[in-house]
Amino acid sequence: AIKAAAQIIKVADNPVISVNGNVVALAAKEVANLSKACNAKVEINLFHRTPERVSGLFEIMKGVGIETLGMNADSIIPGLSSERAKCCSEGIGSADVVLVPLEDGDRCQALVDMGKTVITIDLNPLSRTSQTAHITIVDEITRCLPLLTDCIINLKEINNYNNKDNLKEIIRYIIERLIKLE
Fold it and tell me: In the chain, how many H helices and how many E strands?
């Protein structure tokens, strides 16, 4: 999944990394490194959106060397009624590929409905987000982002990735590990 995500991000015309407060708190530096490696914009997108929260996250990202979008949302993600519907036309609004780590399924589905290629990082292969995204990386975010960054820098090409097959393999792996606990 990491190799497939790296390939999609590398060939994207306008990749965007969408971050919420959890992503910034856990992995601001890793997001910055990924953004620099693939020339992706970073956009703050929050469910509980206030000017103070957006400004605070903006400052944290600025501290790791990334100017983020999201302060002045001027577009809407159709199909969402929450504050997460607000986005930037030069970011998520015009993106062809959106990385949405630690995401809720409703926004993931709305982005897919907009025609975006959606990549997610999620610990749960059964979550609505994992099942909806085009590529799901089932991993912990601070471990995954450096691997994705390295892969973007060094990957040549990958073929024949199927998200549903990948999720089935991950679920089989989890079941096998649980059975061994007995």
Answer: 7, 7
Q: What are the pLDDT digits (tens) for 47-60?
A: 888 888 889 999 99
Q: Which residues of 132-143 are buried (b: 16+ CB within 10 A; e: fewer)?
A: bbbbbbbbebee
Q: Which residue has the tokens 């577009």?
A: 75
- The single residue listed with the structure tokens 């999944």 is 1
Q: What is the number of other CB atoms lying within 10 angstroms of the CB of residue 29?
A: 16
Q: Which of 92, 70, 95, 84 is nearest to 8 (CA)?
A: 95
Pull the structure tokens for residue 128. 């609505």
- Strand extents, DSSP E, 59-116: 75-76, 86-87, 97-99
Strand 97-99 relative to strand 15-19: parallel, antiparallel, unpaired? Answer: parallel
Q: Return the number of other C-beta atoms located less than 10 Å from residue 97's C-beta.
A: 24
Contacts (Cβ under 8 Å, ≥6 apart) of 66: 31, 32, 35, 36, 42
pLDDT for the residue numbered 137: 95
69 forms beta bridges with 43
Q: Are 70 and 58 in contact (CB under 8 A)?
A: yes
Return the ∠ at Cα 128 (arms to 90 and 9), rounded to 5°: 40
Tokens of 116: 């975006």
